[in-house]
Design brief:
The structure is a single chain. The longest helix is centred in the first third of the chain and has 20 residues. By secondary structure, the chain is mainly beta. It has a single domain, classed as Sandwich (Immunoglobulin-like), CATH 2.60.40.1940. It has a five-stranded antiparallel sheet, with no helix packed on it. A four-stranded antiparallel sheet has the order 5-4-8-9, with no helix packed on it.
Length: about 140
């Protein structure tokens, strides 16, 4: 029991540290050598645009791809949120998106190149929230049935 409590406390501490160090945008280099980065127009709950930049191994912008995004909350139990764009300009794609819940997200990005090659990347995206960053539990339907 004590061991389980220590593991739980350690997990909470690490998660808190990661959340505290997280930003509102993210950039990751994947193992393919392509560079995929995401910046959100807003991290408030509701509709926004995600700006995805895609460059090849030489740093040249990719304009003729399709970018698909699937967003999942870090915790289980929520349906994923999807977004897509197929019009790039200087390697930049604007993807209409909706943050449906406050918290930390994992965005799975698939870039489908014109030759059919798929470059995939998972990007942690923290700091999504409402005006005060908290969920309003009073508005949730929590009836026992």
């Amino acid at each position: 029991m004590v061991k389980k409590c220590l593991i739980l406390l350690l997990s909470i501490a690490i998660t808190s540290l990661l959340i505290g160090c997280g930003g509102r945008n993210s950039s990751n280099d994947n193992s393919s050598g392509y560079d995929i980065s995401i910046d959100a127009g807003s991290t408030a709950l509701g509709e926004t645009n995600l700006v995805v930049t895609v460059k090849d191994q030489s740093g040249i912008p990719i304009n003729d791809a399709t970018v698909n995004i699937k967003g999942d909350m870090v915790h289980a139990g929520m349906s994923p949120v999807l977004g897509e764009s197929s019009k790039g300009d200087s390697g930049t794609y604007t993807v209409p998106y909706e943050w449906t819940m406050a918290g930390d997200w994992i965005l799975s990005v698939d870039v489908i190149l014109s030759d059919g090659t798929v470059i995939s990347e998972k990007i942690d995206f923290s700091g999504v929230g409402g005006d005060d960053g908290d969920m309003d539990h009073d508005d949730m339907d929590m009836e026992d049935e």
